[in-house]
Design a protein that fits this description.
about 250 residues; alpha+beta; 4-stranded mixed β-sheet; 8 helices
Length: about 250
């Protein structure tokens, strides 16, 4: 899979990703567009720019990269004048996770899967004290009485997690599941389109079952108004078009 993103300035963005260890393998330019293909290990991204520029808003998470040594990445970034935020040591990145913004304001996360041998207890305590949107969501659920459900996530062997469900997650396909904080954190990173769901909202299904109908568009409203103000309109609508047959009556 090759990830493609549009950028405002190709040279500036390429220099940013080169700080992360990416190297350009190919590129191209035309009168109104340009692109650069960058590689780093198994990761490949393509930066593209156009004239005029696309008005794409910054994304809350553009890329998530796994590197073998997050500390080395941090040193390279700081040497290049970029200071990332350390996000702690979540379950999917036991060696640490950092957050930074690319030149277009998009969020980029970098994680290290395995814990480093030099990781100390003070590092883990620092991780627990940092802000977490998931912990905020879990606190909101607890404030409403909490959930009696258990975490619905199973491990690779098929065994269900024994943790208490803290938050409810959902995706664009309409699926939802309760999860503990560790598994919720992993799902949000690894599952495309997953998001934190409001546990106390009944959603679209409740709206549809309530008998509410969509508001008609301008054309439908105009037709309804014409029928209401012109009693003969339905009969005229049944008249045959020139050279045609009258529509059947039901």
């Amino acid at each position: 899979m090759v990830a493609v993103t549009f950028v405002r300035d190709l040279d500036t963005s390429r220099a940013f990703y080169e700080l992360l260890g990416f190297q350009q393998r190919s590129s191209g330019r035309a009168a109104t567009s340009a692109w650069s293909s960058l590689h780093h290990g198994a990761n490949q991204i393509v930066l593209a720019s156009t004239t005029p520029r696309f008005g794409i808003p910054p994304l809350p998470l553009l890329f998530y990269f796994f590197f073998e040594d997050v500390d080395a990445v941090v040193r390279d970034l700081r040497a290049g004048g970029v200071v990332p935020d350390h996000m702690g040591f979540p379950a999917h990145a036991l060696g640490g996770e950092i957050k930074l913004s690319d030149p277009d304001g998009n969020t980029v996360l970098i994680g290290q899967r395995e814990r480093s041998g030099s990781l100390s207890a003070s590092n883990q305590e620092e991780s627990a004290s940092r802000f977490s949107l998931l912990r905020e969501a879990a606190a909101a659920v607890a404030a409403r009485g909490g959930s009696s459900a258990r975490c619905e996530v199973r491990d690779p062997h098929g065994d269900q997690c024994l943790g208490k469900a803290d938050v409810k997650l959902a995706d664009a396909a309409g699926h939802s599941a309760w999860a503990c904080l560790d598994h919720a954190d992993e799902i949000l990173v690894m599952v495309r389109g997953a998001f934190i769901a409001a546990a106390d909202e009944q959603g679209i299904a409740a709206y549809l079952h309530s008998g509410c109908l969509p508001v008609p568009g301008p054309e439908a409203q105009a037709a309804a108004t014409a029928r209401a103000t012109d009693p003969l309109r339905p009969e005229r609508d049944r008249l045959p078009a020139r050279g045609g047959a009258a529509p059947p009556r039901h």
